Amino acid sequence: MLRWSALEGSYQTLLRLASVVALLTTGNTLSVSSFPSLSSSPPTSVFSSSQGNSLRSTTPVWLPEHVLVYPAMYKYKPVMYSHRDDLTAAGNTVSTGDKDGGGGGEEGGKEEIDVKNTTQPLNKNFRLPASLRPTHYIVRVQPYINGNYSVRGSVQIDIEVLQSTSNITLHVSTMDIHVQDIQLEAAEGDEEGASIPRFTHFVDNLDVEVFTAHLDGELEAGRRVRYTVPYEGTLEHYMGGFYGLHYTDVDGTERYMVSTLNQPVNARIAFPCFDEPQLKATFELHVARQVNMTAVSNMPLLTTTPIEDQEGWVWDSFQTTPPMSTYLLMLVVMSLPHINITAHRQDLPIRIWARQEVLDRMSFMHQVVPGVLDFMETYTNISYSLSKLDIIVVPSQEGIAFEGWGAILMYDERFIQHDPLENDEVNLGKVAWVQAHELAHQWFGNLVTPRWWGDVWLSEGITTYMSNLAMQKMAIVSQSVAAEASFTLHELFHEDSQITAVPVFNQQLDVFKPDTYFNVFSYFKCSLLLHMMAHVLSHHAFRKGMVSFLHEHQYGSVGQDDLSRHLTKAAHETHTLPQDLTVKTILDTWTHQAGYPLVTVTRSPAGTSATAFQEKYLWSQNSSLLSDHYSTWWVPLTHTSQASPDFNDTLVKVWLKGTETQTSVHNLPTRDHWVVFNLQQTGYYRVNYDDNNWNLLIQQLLTDHQLIHVNNRVQMIDDILNLASSGKVSYNTALSLVEYIKKENETLPWRVFQRNMEHMKKMLQSTPAYEGFKKYMWSLLVPLWNLVGLENKLEVQTIQQEHSEAVKWACHHNLPSCVYLAASLYAQWMLTPENIKVVPRDLWGTVYCTAIAHGGEAEWDFAWQQYFLSNDIHHKEQLLAALSCSRDTWEENGYLDLALTSEIKQRTQGAFQVFYSVASNPGGKPLAWNFLTSRWSALANFSFIYSVRYSDSGAAVEQLVVAAAETLTSQQDMDKLRVFRDNHRDNPRVVAASEVALDIVARNVAWMERNYDVICEWLQARGFNIGLR
Ligand SMILES: [Zn+2]
């Protein structure tokens, strides 16, 4: 299970904000170097990462590794001392040894060789020439982790010449290349006696990090050469390549370690290499370490030998890897303790390395790791490929995890700890899911690797899907994974209907902007597309296709068409797909374009047939943004009816083809029986019906909602509230349908309902209608509240799991009995501050926020003090959020300033969290806006740092503009925004952000004009009185 309770509202927006605001909140610590200078000649001081720039804190907890890791990494892409400086210093000329060939490496005389240092831009989509293929690397490194943070290294690459060429081009990032010692010689298997050309000059392209050795003659196709490049680098840079970090042990000792993060394009920071994922080779790693440390890599240790002349140092040599991509080479040198895990089979040693206090909270891993490995081996019919597995928990709290082959890295201790005594199933689900995801990568991603980063969903989407299956199989947590997938789908539906949504397959991507391809779509949309395909093709055919895909391409690399081909073959053999239809035809329509269809079902007057019409569903109705409104998909239609309800048959009944906008569906019942399309919502699309069918469904839900599958109840709630919001269905119909929720005792419909009503609350909260709306919400919540309360006397199993959520909703809507209980609990805590357990852990956020919102200065001050006293990160986060719940505007005003000037901004995205919370509060709206405009210059400065360090994909302030717009609903707000935009005409990105914000506000204004009176009438007709407008 994944209980992503941190997800509310626009999580994609939050995600982007999270990544950029981390910079915003830490921008001015950039030049602080916290790395020690332990030697007489430390490397040039460079940007350091260890202070306050982590992306944890309010980052949604469900996100796996990369989405969080990469924005951070690239922002701080090091501006380091590098070989380029040296080349420049040497007047672009260095001396290099003459590499006379003749098959024997005969030493020649010295001569001057030109080195050109160029910034001439190559295409950002630059790919290495297809002329060379690396087959084997020998990497030797000596990291001075307890010394001056330098790394001495040498790489020896065996290369097969595929096409005749007169240069050797590979990737090199921030390091000193010892150009004079570069060698080229014949490798094993080369032509007997063939001569080796000599180097003429080297060209170094900074933009795409490519280093080219030009030769005075051709290397003919079929030749095999060995290219040796000695270099010197540093561990002192932000996460990427081999990098150093330090942490404090439980006894207060400061310790240092080396870790790796090579994905996507950082192996070139660690060592010169052909840094493209499809260029797989075998790796032999030798690392020099001090005797009191341990080195871990992908493969088991082979030998350890003392280093002559260096007392206390040894060489660790590891077994040669199978063929793999450069980004998977792992190296960790540390002095962490470990525990052993008993695997599902005897011959596989599994170790987990972490600080002792973290190891003590890992009992669940004895179940999770063998369980997932067993599941993956059974599902794929391929044994785990390596002869050992290490999991190393790096005490860094930057990002979440990386799927290193044979050596998984966890970057945040919180994502691997679970205390059984806390009985926190949400946390257990989260940490188990992250492990399942990384373990599934050992097959999908590591064994079979996407050929290029534009296909990364073949690694991330499949892995996300497989980890869901593994979780379901292992039943570690009680909530069904299918239900969780359904909730994910509704979150994604919102993001994927925005103008900012992007296709998952992006051929033109810029590899230096990993957040554009490691995103919610490549992880979660693709997982849901696979879920859809498994239902379309049958689970049997789907698995058959996946297994043959894996078997054929193991140790190789793949593109989307390879997967489609295997799935097609399996489905044709199983007769679940027409022979004239391929998976590629279907799947391409879903991966090559952003968004998804709305299918509108209109039944004939007799009801017995219907037309199903498809159009792109867009949240915004702004016509200027509808350029690709006429997109079409291959939509698998499934349906059932009141006449003989069967929600389990999810095989396709009718295809709505990608070549047509509508199709006919026959054999439906008469018009007095409802129909439901998209059974169990296995298809990635929304459904609308004609009024008569909606009314039949409303009657059904009010009389016996359980006759309709819970996933379809969820679907109807989400679809109809969205359709009402975008003007396609009347709120009369929508609100009538959701009234049944009073009787709902499943949690998923409630969660989706609450998420949707949040939008309506934001719209109405500053209007007279809000009083009526609030009482209407109470009327729906009271039955649930009576069941749950703040106590744990629970009768309904599923509600029990969502206990804290139910309380949250009740308090969020100010249900008086909830407010009273929250205030009482908080008061008790104020009396005994040391006892934070007065308030149950899972209710911290709800209780604190409610008590502060309804309390006074004393409550706020108490939380403020506790924020600084607490050492518990989760507790701090809850306090930070709660501080913005105050209704007292002066407090909020002061709070925004404090957030930018105090310790808060040192802590992760504190400032953003504060801003967003304040902006979401009824009284906070104008404050947030004023703050944004009055503090503009300070904020814009952060934005500038962001843009030069990272990329131009977005800046903090732009995102703040958009966030501030979410609760703006009036023409005056529009005018303010226009003025703001016009004042920043000189900054195209701020103008662009303002346009997005204007679109949001325009939509809000239109929503108010269209729906306000309708909603007021509806509320009044049910006795929920509203004030005067
Ligand atoms: Zn992953």
From TrEMBL:
Enzyme class: hydrolase
Domain annotation ERAP1-like C-terminal: ranges: 674-999
Enzyme nomenclature, EC number: 3.4.11.2
UniProt GO MF annotations: alanyl aminopeptidase activity; metallopeptidase activity; zinc ion binding
GO CC, one annotated term: plasma membrane
Recorded topology in the membrane: Lipid-anchor; GPI-anchor
Skewed-composition ranges (Basic and acidic residues): 97-111
Primary localization: membrane
Active site: 438
Coiled-coil residues: none
Full protein name: Aminopeptidase N
Organism annotation: Scylla paramamosain (Mud crab)
Location(s) in or outside the cell: Cell membrane
